Amino acid sequence: MELPAVLGLVLLLHLPQIRATQGILHAVGDGVPNTGKDYCITYNSSWTTLPTSYANANYYKLENISSIWLCSESELPRTDLKNKAVVVMVGNCSILDKALIAQSRNAKMLLVASKDGLPRPTDNRSGYESLTIPIAYVKYGDIANMEQDVGRNINVTMYSPSPPLFDYSMLVIFLISVFTVALGGYWSGVSELEDLRPSHNTGESEGGKKKDENVTFTPFTVILFVVICCVMLLLLYFFYKWLVYVIICVFCLASALSMFNCLSALIQYIPYGRCRISCLSKSAEVRLIFLALFCAAISVTWAVFRNEDRWIWILQDILGIAFCLNFIKTLRMPNFKACVILLGLLLLYDVFFVFITPFITKNGQSIMIEVAAGPSGSTEKLPVVIRVPRLEYSAVKLCVMPFSLLGFGDIIVPGLLVAYCRRFDVRFTSSSAYYISCTIGMCHIFRS
């Protein structure tokens, strides 16, 4: 596998969280008993105050008149809107005009259906102080499918759970990142120690092979590395729907190879099952053949079921950890100068693509966020993150991100620095002072 393809996979995502005022629309119908489903809504908290639980909220019968805009009294059908939750279509007038008309007909709730995502309700006009009914945006597709989801005679309510005081999924992310960085750095030191040992007879060719497996960065290759990351990010921004499958294929191959390298390094310490078989003048241990098949099977399983969010995240995290470990061990920084250049360039990379590009793009969105979230119509996501499901139910989990995420780059980049410190200890000191102090420093960075 070409090194640029793997390098382009590493630093695509440093994902900022998207913040908005989200709430939950809870709908129940006369379908299967106890049938209920939650849908994402957006609202303005300065106009609408929602309860924190649907158990404490009032339910209203849903009246779907999304065929009209509700911009004038003449549009209203003869249907009675009293004590109902009314759904109308976005457009032609402000949300305030729609709400005042619905309120004048004694409606208890206004839902504005949008076919283009969920905008946040904003309006500079005065008059919202006279509103007494809650108003929110909802996806038109959710309204259209609601009867199929929960049955007929639908009753709805809106609520917004309080955000959790502590996100326990972030603790899992923290432990994974620290474990990967510390172990990857230690493994790099072990590899360095093996390279420093004098080769003897039969072990000489094997030692030379191990050295060839490692890639040492120079200041020039560091700059080339960052340039490749920029090019890959721009290509994904413009050609996402095609290149996402290329990234998936590269991830499958690279993660399977990385898992094999990680597990084979452990298997070599097991003094059993060393029998070999020969084929075409080459020989291999049987246990390594079975290990290669196992790693390939894990990677293929992830590729087939990659959109099964309920459990596939476990395999993605395992493959991702193996990928990061192997990358930290294989890629070597020659000196501290190269580390400073890499970290400085990546800082500029993040700042430009997150904070500067919104002033350049037509839609005002940063290129990094667009690539991270993927196009709105795409179900495929880039597999370059460690992800853990959020344990607490909230509007953010439903509307924005059901997983806590950490990009591979956020693990590999500090891991390269820790690995350099570990190799420095092996070469020039008899202790692990630099390795331990750098790992502790990385713990404080991940904690923040």
TrEMBL record:
Signal peptide: 1-20
Residue ranges of every copy of the PA domain listed in the record: 65-144
Molecular function terms, GO-annotated: aspartic endopeptidase activity, intramembrane cleaving
Residue ranges crossing the lipid bilayer per the database entry: 168-187, 217-239, 245-267, 288-305, 311-328, 340-360, 400-421
One Gene Ontology term from the biological process aspect of the record: membrane protein proteolysis
InterPro entries for the chain: PA_domain, Peptidase_A22B_SPP, Preselin/SPP
Membrane topology, from the record: Multi-pass membrane protein
Coiled-coil intervals: none
Swiss-Prot/TrEMBL keywords: Hydrolase, Membrane, Signal, Transmembrane, Transmembrane helix
UniProt superkingdom: Eukaryota
Example of a GO cellular component annotation carried by this entry: lumenal side of endoplasmic reticulum membrane
Predominant location category: membrane
Family affiliation: Belongs to the peptidase A22B family.
Matches recorded under PANTHER family: SIGNAL PEPTIDE PEPTIDASE, SIGNAL PEPTIDE PEPTIDASE-LIKE 2A
Designated name of the protein: PA domain-containing protein
Biological source species: Engystomops pustulosus
Biological classification of the source: Eukaryota, Metazoa, Chordata, Craniata, Vertebrata
